[in-house]
Amino acid sequence: MSKNTAHIAAVIGASGSGKSTYIKQTLRRAKPARLLIWDPQNEYAEFGAPVRTLTDMHAALVTAGKRGKFSMVFTPDGDPRKMVKQFDLFCLLAYHAGNLTMVCEELADVTQPGNAPAGWSVSTRKGRHAGLRLYGASQRPASIDKHFFGNATVIRTGRLNFAADIKGMANVLQVPEDEIRALLPLEWVERDMQNGKITRGKITF
Amino acid sequence: MTGDLDNLAAAAAAVDAEVAPPAAQFVAGEDTQLEQVAPTAEVEAAELAAILQAMTSLFVPLFPSLAAVYTPEACRSLAAATVPFMRKRGWTLPGIMAAWAEEIALAVVAFPLAFATWTAVNADIAQAKAKADKKDAAGIDLSRSGSSGEPVSLPKNDKPAIPTEPRA
Questions:
Q1: A130 touching B, CB under 8 A?
Q2: Fewer beta carbons within 10 angstroms: which end of chain B, N or C?
Q3: What is the ipTM of this complex?
Q4: What is the mean pLDDT of each run of 10 residues along chain A (205 residues)?
C-alpha cells in the first residue's frame, strides 16, 4: 500500500441494508495486517481482540511500532459525550500509529454535519499521508460530518429510509433520487470519487 | 510519528479515567454477559467490618490496647452505622477501595514502618542521653581528682583541707 494513495470509503445505508456486511466481506477478503475497528454495536468481534480501554490500545500500538501486526476491536462507552472523546482519541491513535486499516461504525453517534472530532478530521484529511485505509459507516448520512464526503475516495450507499438522506446521497453520488429510493436490502450504488465512475450491485453470500 | 504516539499515553489514560467502568462484567472465554448486582447494605457492612478487623489486627502489635477497643462486635456495630452514612453521601465501599487502593496499600506498609522508626529513634535518643549523663557524672569525679581544668562546685558536705599551724 502506497502511503500517499488514499482509500477513504464512506459506507451508508439504513439498518439491514448491508453496509456492515459489505465491510466485513471486504475485511475477510483483504485480511489487513494492521486493523483497528470502532465497534459501538459489538458486531466485529471476529476480526480482532477486544480492547476495553484506550490505554490498552495505545500500549499495543506502541509495541507494534510501524511494522507490527495487530487487529483490535474497540467498543466504546454508551454515554454519547464520553463516546465522542473516546472516538477523538481512537482516531488520533490510529493516525499516529499509521499504516493501518481503520473501520468506524455508526459515525452519526460521534460526528455532526458541521462538526467532527479533531482526530477524525485529521484522519480523513491527512490519513493518506499516514497510510490509513479508512471505512466510515453510518445509517444517517444527513447526520454525519459533511467534510467526510468531501475527503472520501469511494462513496457507497444501500437502501435508505428517510427522504433527507435519499436526497442527500443522490446529490453526493450524482444519481437520480428515484434510484436511491428504489434500492432493496443488500443492493448498492457506489461512486468512485476520483474518476466519477458509478457502479451498482447486490451483496451476495 | 512514533514520538507523537508515545505522547498520547497520558491523553488515553485521561479519557479512560473519564469513562465509567462498564456496567456489566464479562467472563473471559465466555460469551455470556453477567449482570452486575449492587451489594446490599448488609453485605457492604459485613465487608466493612471485615476490613476494620483486618486493620485492627494490623495495629494491635503496635498498640495492644486496641484489641480490647475494636472487638469484632465493635467493628460490626461501627460498620453497620457507617454504611448508611456512606450511602447518604453517595460513597460505596468498592468505589472507595478502588479510588484509594494505592493510598491504603501505602498506609498499611508505611504506618508500621513509621511507628517502628519513631520507636527506634526514641530508644536511640534515650540511650545517647543516658550515655551523656553517665559521662557527665564521670566528669565530676575527674575534676575532683584535679586532673580537669574545669571549675567544679564541691559537694556541700566537703570541706577544704586547710593546713593549720600547730598551736604553740
A1: yes
A2: C
A3: 0.85
A4: 72 91 94 96 93 93 92 89 92 94 94 88 90 93 86 94 91 94 93 94 88
